[in-house]
């Protein structure tokens, strides 16, 4: 009985020992496999860093204003007799827009003109009689004054008739007509808006710190995506003499050729050149990993693992950021020209991570980007 138990115990120990040895070998193999494991490289896109000169600029929202713009209005009261324009017409200086009823003034003019003719005849007779010493000097002076008064009254009515013919004060584009034939106009009633649209003014504000750099003649880039006019250039033509006490901005006025669609009151984006440029390394904004402890980018380089095997990986590099322009952000320090910077996939990287560069599809990298929904 004891012998049988001893045999059973021996067999049990042998079985347990064999199982333990097999498990030990499996664990050893798993550890070796884990030590030899390399994570698959992350697919990324890259761009080679290059240096560029970015001019110092200031961006602001500007307002379009006409070089000359008025609301043409009635000078004297009257009934509209003729309307000689349509809304949106382009008119020349002096072109007749509206004629008011002048029948009453015309009748007065005829009567006064007849009186003027009689006064001149009387004056001429007095001149002859004065030479013959038939009339006194006082009678002659009275006739002379009467003739001049008759001339003045005729000129007054003639001026009133002329003022009831409303003309364009300058060449420009008319707005929407605000009068109709037969309508009564009081003095000052609006007839139509008139704007000279080419060239055009663009007014915008710059901070008081930039006053020293904003000078007449500086280039201004103007952009209006809303009308599809694209970007066009203007020049600073005036700088206000006072700084706004609320915003501490100073108003600047630029003059530009109108591409045809700008209208007074429209908003546009302006970029004014302030002076000297700055040497920067522009990269796509998607390349930057923003973080509270410091902004960084990932630079692709040749690395070695713990066993000395070479592979393509990334190193995280803290950088100093500058201004932005379109899809790009300026790197002031931290990387050098020639560095291969990761431009997409930075959120899934870590320092030393292996990467596979695939530049078939790259993120936008346009310094003058135009958002699709702008």
**Whole-angstrom Rg:** 44 Å
CATH fold group of the largest domain: OB fold (Dihydrolipoamide Acetyltransferase, E2P)
At the first level of CATH, the class of the largest domain is Mainly Beta
CATH architecture identity of the largest domain: Beta Barrel
The share of residues in helices is 10-25%
**CA distance, first residue to last residue:** 96 Å
Biggest sheet record: 6 strands, antiparallel, barrel
Shape: rod-shaped
Q: Helix- and strand-based class?
A: alpha+beta
Pattern of helices and strands: HEEEEEHHEEEEEEEEEEEEEE
What is the number of independent domains? 3
For CATH, the homologous superfamily of the largest domain is named as RNA polymerase II/Efflux pump adaptor protein, barrel-sandwich hybrid domain
Please state roughly what percent of the residues sit in beta strands, choosing from under 5%, 5-15%, 15-25%, 25-35%, 35-45% or over 45%. 35-45%
Strand order of the largest sheet: 2-9-12-11-10-13
Q: How would you describe the oligomerization state of the chains in this entry?
A: single chain
* Overall pLDDT level: 78
The beta-strand count equals: 19
- Low-confidence spans: none
Count every helix, treating DSSP H or I runs of 4 or more residues as helices: 3
């Amino acid at each position: 009985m004891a012998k049988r138990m001893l045999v059973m115990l021996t067999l049990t120990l042998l079985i347990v020992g064999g199982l333990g040895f097999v498990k030990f070998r499996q664990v050893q193999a798993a550890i070796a496999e884990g030590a030899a494991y390399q994570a698959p490289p992350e697919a990324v896109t890259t761009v080679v860093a290059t240096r560029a000169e970015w001019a110092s600029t200031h961006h602001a929202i500007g307002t379009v204003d006409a070089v000359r713009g008025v609301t043409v209005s009635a000078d004297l009261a009257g009934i509209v007799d003729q309307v000689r324009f349509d809304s949106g017409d382009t008119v020349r200086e002096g072109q007749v827009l509206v004629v008011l009823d002048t029948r009453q003034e015309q009748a007065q003019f005829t009567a006064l003109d007849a009186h003027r003719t009689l006064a001149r005849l009387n004056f001429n007779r007095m001149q002859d009689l004065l030479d013959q010493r038939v009339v006194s000097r006082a009678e002659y002076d009275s006739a002379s004054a009467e003739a001049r008064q008759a001339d003045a009254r005729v000129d007054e009515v003639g001026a009133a008739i002329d003022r009831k013919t409303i003309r364009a004060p300058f060449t420009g584009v008319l707005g929407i007509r605000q009068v109709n034939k037969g309508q009564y106009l009081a003095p000052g009633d609006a007839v139509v808006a008139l704007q000279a649209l080419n060239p055009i003014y663009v007014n915008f504000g710059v901070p008081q710190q930039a006053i020293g750099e904003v000078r007449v003649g500086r280039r201004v880039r103007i952009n209006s995506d809303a009308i599809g006019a694209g970007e066009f250039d203007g020049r600073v033509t005036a700088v206000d003499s006072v700084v706004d006490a609320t915003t501490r901005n100073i108003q600047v006025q630029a003059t530009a050729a109108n591409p045809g669609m700008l209208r007074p009151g429209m908003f546009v984006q302006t970029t004014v050149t302030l002076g000297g440029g700055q040497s920067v390394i522009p990269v796509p904004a998607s390349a930057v990993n923003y973080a509270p402890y410091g902004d960084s980018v990932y630079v692709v380089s040749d690395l070695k693992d713990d066993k000395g095997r070479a592979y393509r990986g990334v190193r995280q590099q803290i950088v100093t950021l500058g201004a932005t322009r379109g899809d790009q952000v300026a790197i002031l320090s931290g990387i050098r020209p020639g560095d291969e910077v990761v431009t997409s996939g930075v959120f899934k990287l870590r320092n030393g991570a292996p990467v596979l560069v695939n530049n078939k599809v790259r993120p936008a990298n346009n310094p003058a980007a135009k958002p699709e929904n702008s």
